[in-house]
Design goal:
The protein has 118 residues and is of the alpha+beta class. It is built from three helices and two strands, in the order H-H-H-E-E.
Length: 118
């Protein structure tokens, strides 16, 4: 056995006619012509502008919906019954009557006085 026969590189059958750098060339993108590049750029700009237009329309639609909701809520608020709070009654006793016996003729007289408690 000779050492030169065993250390000789052996090429597989499927790699016999391939170029060593072919895998690198396949990974690279192909170059386009100026016309193709311009067409691709125009298509990209058009799609982006359409998306932007759709976004703007969506925002305006949403704003319109919010304005309609606010208007409906304002109408509902106006139509809602107003709950009147009962007026707070003071703890004033109000006019009190005091019976006073008149010493002159012995009859009962009523004297009205106002008393406010704060």
């Amino acid at each position: 056995m000779d050492i030169s026969e065993t250390s000789r590189p052996c090429t597989r059958a499927k790699n016999a006619f391939t170029h060593p750098g072919d895998i690198v060339l396949q990974a690279q993108g192909k170059q386009c012509s100026k016309a193709k590049k311009a067409a691709d750029d125009k298509l990209l700009r058009d799609t982006l502008s359409e998306k932007e237009q759709a976004r703007r329309e969506g925002i305006t639609h949403l704003a319109d919906m919010e304005m309609e909701m606010e208007a409906k809520q304002a109408v509902v608020k106006k139509l809602a019954p107003v709950h009147l709070h009962p007026q707070v009654k003071s703890k004033n006793v109000g006019p009190t009557s005091m019976e006073v016996v008149s010493a002159k003729n012995g009859t009962m007289e009523t004297e009205v006085t106002c008393c406010f408690i704060l």
